[in-house]
Structure formats: C-alpha cells, structure tokens
Write a structure and sequence with these properties.
The chain is globular and about 85 Å long. By secondary structure, the chain is an alpha/beta fold. It has helices at 3-32, 36-46, 59-74, 171-175, 192-201, 213-216, 220-227, 252-261, 266-273, 341-359, 382-389, 426-436, 457-462, 480-494, 510-528, 542-552, and strands spanning 78-79, 86-96, 101-105, 110-114, 119-122, 129-139, 145-146, 151-152, 163-167, 206-210, 230-234, 246-250, 281-307, 312-322, 327-328, 337-338, 367-374, 398-403, 415-419, 440-443, 467-471. It has 16 helices and 21 strands. The relative contact order is 0.15. It is 35% helix and 24% strand. Bound molecules: zinc ion (ZN).
C-alpha cells in the first residue's frame, strides 16, 4: 500500500469510527434517558386527586391538557395542530336518571327489574327521553352477521321496533372450536360495540347483551360503572338517531329469569346459539322501559405535539396514549375519584418520557414524530375515533401508530406482549428491538378478551394505518409466569376501572422502562426508513391501506 495515502485514509477511518460511535452513543444515551423517576413523578401528578379522575370536559381535563401542553412546550416540541396543541372534539353527555325500571310482560305474569342491580341501559340518541313500549323480545343468539364466517343470526328475522337479547363474545370463544370464527381469539363480532352497531343496522328499538364475566372479560361492576352515570358520545349529523333507542346489558340472573318467564332455558339456548344453523327465538314477551336524560353538548380535546422530521417531515410516526379516565362519582361511598393511575396515567406520562428521549438526539429522525394524547377512550375510544375520522396528518403518510395503555408496574419481564400479534409488518420492528434487550415478543396470552378492539390503536387500524399495541410482558425475570398472570388478574378483579386504581410508590417501574426504551428504538427505526409498513395478507385492514397508499402515489 502506498504510504502516502495511509495518513489521510487512517484519518478518514478514525473519523468515520468516531462519527458513527458518536451517533450511536447519542442514540444510546437518548434511549437510556428514559428513566423511572420522571415517569413516576408525572404519573403521580396525572393520577392525583387534584386531577379529579381526568373526565372529558371537566376541571380534570383542563388540568390534564394544560399539564401536557406545558410539558411538551418545555421539551421544545411544536404544536401538533397548526398553532395549537389541541384538537377539539365535539361530544354529547347523556345522563340517564337512575331508578329506571325494566318491565317484562308475558301472557300471564309481568316482572320488573331494577336498574344497576339487574340491568343497565342508556341511549346515545340526543334526546331527553327514550322508551321501549311493549317491544317484542327476540333472542338473536350472538347478534352477528358475518358473511366471511358464513354466519347470520338475523337471517330471515325482522326486528324492527323489537328488542333483541344477545350473547357476549362469539361462537368461536364459546365452543373453542378453531373452525368457528377465530376459535378462542375474540373477533370484532364479539365486542359489545359491534353488537350495538349491528342491532341498529337491523332496525331494532332496543338491545340487551347478557353479561357473563368469562366471555365479557370483566365483572358486572365494570358494566355497572360504564353504563350508568354520564355517558359521552361523539355526535353525528343525525344526532345519533340511527342508533338503537336503548342499549344495555342484563345481569346473567336477570336473563335466566326472563327466559324462564318465557318457558325457556337460558343455558340450553346459549349452547344452541353457538352451533351453526341456530335460528333466533322470539320470547313472546314484551319489554317496557323509559329513560329520562339530561343532555349536554360539550367539547373535549386531544393533545397533539410534533417533533418535525429532519429529512421527510411530511411522513409521520404516532405515539399514542389516552389521557382520560372516569372522573369522579359523587354518589359513591368513600373514595369517589377514579384516579386511573395505571389506566392510563402511566401511558400518558410515557408520551412525555419518549418525547424527552427523542429531543436528546443530535438531530431529529428523518420522519416527524407525533405525540398524541387522546380523550374519551374509556367512553368508547372517542378521541381516537375522532382523530382517525378527521386526521390532522394524512393517513397514507402515517407510517405507524404505537399505542400505550397501562404500563407494566410489576418489574422486569423476559418478554413483551403484542396485542394483535401477527397482523402487520410492525411485528418485525418490535422483535428486533426486543432482541437487542435479550427479550422475546409474545402474542396476547388472553386473546379471548378482545383487547385488540379495546384500545386506541383500533380506530387507526380501521383507517388502514398499521397500528400496534405492545403491552406488559407476562414472564417476570424474578418471579416467573404464574406470578405475573396472578398480578394481572388481581388488578383486573380489584382495581380495574375502580377508584382504587391509584398511584402506588411501591410499583416496580423497571420493566416499564425496558418497554419504553424498546418502543423508543422501534419508533426511531421506523422514523429513519422510507418504506411504509403494511398489514399482512388476509387481515381486515389491508384493503384500506393498499388503497390509501396507491392514491398517495
Ligand atoms: Zn386504558
């Protein structure tokens, strides 16, 4: 080798090494800046009694969105919606007077059921009064019309003006038959949201879902909290008149009694309904119910912060969390504030933490990063539905959505869970990032709970944007799997959607920090690429994405 060029070459090599390592070092130190101290402090603030449980359109909302705006401003992020950090969401709050009675009339006898204990009901119609008046009751099995699974519970049935009673979840779950629907994995047809939508399409006046703790994935108390008191909805042009007049749930025992009155056996019919060829059964009973409502139109806000990309600022990665929770219920004895510490003060604080980490890079990644804290998740994914229907950033230019809802507070895990694993190209990004930490990626251990349809990534998926919902791992480094699942079940039974979901200084956030560092790296990689991830073949979201990407070209 010519000695003359060795000098400059070695300088180049050394400079090159120095350059890359410095860049990598910076990336690593940005990643490692994600730490438990501020995450805990921010979670504690968001979950404090002062924030009153963060209900949409409340004093708690004002405090929450101001806090987030200030934090994003302090970090030097830009407003994500023009000049504003907020996206306004028009909503209606409908509060039914408690004490409504459900009257079921047979040919001879009539039975009255009590609001809250026996059933819950509400309306999304923007009306001060709705009622069922001697509405014929029909048991419509699972209340599902699914051509791709060759299933139609409404086949040959005219339910206009009638009240349908349906089962929760889907026949695949009930039978564990892998050839029915998606076997144990809940499909969207298993969700209450779908059942209400379908009953409305069929023209039913009322719909009641029979509650069972197993297939619903939560106890009656969760239904009771969610369906009584103020109910928030997005408003449509027709003031939600296309919805059923009455949407509700029946306690299992209530359903059994109603079927008994009809001379039928609920448990037998439930089994029959999960078999192919089941035909709906008119109960020859009539339902009457009157709901008196107070109706209030309000505005809530999504919080949107922007870190402009350094090369392709018109392409986006969205980190997503819901800031809202259930607020305060003055009617409760004892603790009246639903602090929502785990759900989802942790995920909201994580947005700040991740934004801080991206700001520590030498220069921002090529694509823009959006930090989106949405409202109204607990009321039915309202903020994310609204954003997905009124996107601030074009859907075809949005490469990916990463959703965080309830972080891991049980310490370090050997794995990370992906709810809806196997659906999109995003799997490989999370796998790579997990591998760097010596961890594995596992699918949702309880797919029968339908978690994929229960958090904010779902409205984005329906719009075709690849959206992933990474969740806490299930295999504790220190205590193993059984222990971890027991912790989760304990939380669901004791604290989920209850005032007792409070910040706990004893939480071990080391696992959450691992997860956030992993999600940072994943988002960073996605933001440095120029390709657009897609859904896998055969998923219900791919057609929309394909059309979207084709149009953008
Ligand atoms: Zn949540």
């Amino acid at each position: 080798m010519n000695k003359k060029i060795i000098g400059p070459l070695s300088v180049l090599i050394i400079f090159g090494l120095w350059c890359c390592t410095s860049e990598e070092k910076r990336l690593r130190s940005a990643q490692e800046s994600v730490a438990a101290e501020k995450l805990a402090a921010d979670t504690k603030i968001l979950a404090s009694d002062e924030f009153e449980g963060r209900a949409p359109a409340s004093v708690g909302e004002e405090k929450t969105v101001q806090f987030l705006e200030q934090e994003f401003q302090k970090l030097g992020l830009k407003p994500g919606n023009g000049q504003s950090f907020f996206q306004e969401i028009p909503m209606v709050v409908i509060t039914a007077e408690p004490g409504a009675k459900l009257e079921i009339k047979g040919t001879k006898e009539s039975t009255t059921f009590a609001y809250k204990n026996d059933f819950v009901a509400l309306t999304e119609r923007v009306l001060e009064e709705v009622s069922l008046a001697d509405s014929e009751i029909v048991f419509a099995g699972y209340g599902i019309v699914a051509p791709e699974f060759n299933w139609n519970d409404y086949q040959g049935l005219d339910v206009r003006g009638k009240t349908v009673v349906v089962l929760v979840n889907d026949p695949g779950y009930a039978t564990e038959d892998p050839t029915l629907f998606s076997g144990r994995t809940m499909t969207y047809y298993g969700r209450w949201t779908y059942k209400y939508e379908e009953a409305a399409r069929q023209g039913a006046a009322g719909i009641f879902i029979v509650h069972e703790t197993g297939p619903a994935a939560y106890p009656w108390g969760v239904v009771e909290n969610g369906w009584t008191g103020p109910k928030f909805s997005l408003t449509s042009e027709d003031n939600n008149m296309s919805r059923c007049a009455v949407e509700g749930w029946l306690q299992l025992e209530t359903a059994r009694k109603i079927f008994e009155t009809a001379g039928l056996n609920y448990d037998e019919l439930r089994t029959a309904a999960s078999k192919r060829g089941f035909k709906a059964v008119p109960l020859r009973l009539r339902a009457s119910l009157r709901l008196k409502n107070s109706v209030k139109k309000v505005t809530s806000r999504n919080v949107v912060a922007l870190l402009p990309g350094s090369e392709r600022a018109d392409e986006y990665i969205i980190y997503l969390s819901h800031w809202d929770h259930f607020g305060t219920n003055p009617a409760l004895e004892g603790d009246k504030i639903f602090n929502g510490a785990l759900d989802n003060a942790t995920g909201t604080a994580a947005l700040i933490e991740l934004a801080g980490a991206f700001k520590k890079l030498n220069r921002p990644p090529h694509r823009s990063i959006i930090f989106l804290a949405v409202t109204g998740e607990e009321q039915g994914l309202l903020g994310s539905e609204y954003y997905a229907a009124h996107p601030i950033y074009p859907t075809a230019k949005t490469a990916a959505v990463i959703n965080m809802d309830a972080l891991n507070v049980y310490g370090r895990m050997k794995d990370i869970t992906v709810v809806g694993y196997g659906l999109s190209d995003l799997d490989q990004y999370i796998e790579t990032a997990a591998k760097e930490q010596g961890r594995t990626v596992n699918p949702d251990p309880t797919p029968e709970k339908g978690s994929y349809f229960r958090s904010d990534h779902f409205p984005f998926a329906k719009q075709g944007i690849p959206a992933i919902y990474p969740s806490a791992g299930t295999d504790s480094v220190e205590h193993g799997k059984e222990w971890t699942l027991a912790q989760r079940e304990k939380y669901t039974a004791e604290n989920y959607h209850k005032p007792s979901d409070e910040f706990d200084p004893k939480w071990d956030l080391s696992g959450a920090i691992d997860d956030l560092r992993l999600l940072f790296k994943m988002g960073y990689r996605l933001a440095m690429e120029s390709t657009f991830p897609n859904w896998k073949e055969g998923t219900p979201y791919k057609a929309k994405r394909d059309a979207d990407l084709a149009k953008a070209r």
